[in-house]
Amino acid sequence: GSSDDLTFPLEIPPAKIRFTKLFIGGEFVDSVSGKTFETIDPRTGEAIASVSEGDKEDIDLAVGAARRAFDHGPWPRLPGAARAKIMHKFADLIDQHIEELATLDTLNAGKLFSWGKAVDIPSVANTLRYFAGAADKIHGQVLKMSRELHAYTLLEPIGVVGLIIPWNFPSTMFFVKVSPALAAGCTMVVKPAEQTPLSALFYAHLAKEAGIPDGVINVVNGFGPTAGAALTSHMNVDKVSFTGSTEVGRKVMQAAAASNLKTVSLELGGKSPLLIFDDADIDQAADLALLGVMHNKGEVCVAGSRVLVQEAIYDEFVKTLVEKAKEWVVGDPFHPNSRVGPQVDKKQYEKVMSYIEHGKREGATLLTGGKPAAKKGYYIEPTVFTDVTDDMMIVKDEIFGPVMVLMKFKTMEDGIRAANNTRYGLAAGIVTKSLDTANTVSRSIRAGVIWINCYFAFDNDCPFGGYKSSGFGRDEGMVGLQKYLQVKSVVTPLYNSPW
Ligand code: ADP
Q: Mean pLDDT throughout 437-460?
């Protein structure tokens, strides 16, 4: 298609970009170097704002502010209920600015505005509320010692945490990390992705308005190899929680090991399988398969990008899928009828297009899509490949775009083998009416989340994270709170006996 086919916005909500500096010690400040970088609107490829560019010196200042707030400030020492009260206020303030925040993520990341307004932004407020509910229920255990000793554990906040955020869910990932860290009593330095600094800065402003003490949340925009690397190798950071690519995850872990052995949790890439068994409702399965890889233009770490379909229904499934792929209208993410917006930036756009070219060259059959969808901006047609082999790059690598590879399997065992034939292990989906199949497959796939007859069924109470090269540690749920705490054992003789 050409740009004429695109759905253009009816009306863009007012987008006044209010915050573009670094947020350190409760103030918006310029970077030490005075440098700025341009942040881009992927709908046009044009700059929309100049943002302060943080580097090592700025990370130093931010870590210093967080350290002081942790060592001497009120936040870690407040009763949990008092922290919770402030977190609830923060959540309420987000609710009052849903439209403005959704606009920033659409402008900065090409995300669907309607979705941001209805789902993403309201749910980040709920993430804060979920973890606020835990803030006054963090406690250790009394231990049953084998000798005459009284012992208990304390759960203490781990300290200053570095939170490195990806660009595909700028708001969701910010709060998936910030909320449990706040509840635990940690202080933090957040490094948003360089593509999407705008909403993070707005959240910093709202945090201050809610009464979160200065230095508890610091936000340093900047690039990975400079600001990001400085945070991961900082001697005064106690933990890093990272979401991003597997390659950068390796660097994060190396930097942590080489500096002060800070603890690390990594939520990395995926090439998640969706297994569709021959007892499935073909219509529903095709809808689910498309949702799994086209949602958020395929820029989803848990995207179901490998769709495995059982032999008997394969041909009919393909027909239905290709027909339904047309429903995934590419267009301006502000338009309510658009379902696929632009890829986040030029680099991602070119990366996805080069995988598509690779797929064609390697001999896969292109069922639909495969081309840019507009003359301007980073739009790509929803793309489906079939007749693929295990060694093709489009089957092995995470593409992070609206690109599905479709494969056929015979028996359940074959399906399980194919599903596990990946270095990743983030998520998997199963479509079947058989309880036996669902039970067997969900226990046989090495992945952190299994969705049966659904996909993207996230919830604050439902942990997610990776097996294998998809990383380790879990976000969300009470297990997602644990990584911001550490265990201290306290032991004393039970009786006043000579020791
Ligand atoms: P992608 O390749 O999809 O852009 P990245 O893993 O590069 O994903 O980015 C995720 C986050 O990691 C971003 O905030 C980015 O700035 C940051 N980052 C990139 N390189 C490094 C690095 N060497 N050290 C720390 N953080 C980094």
A: 98
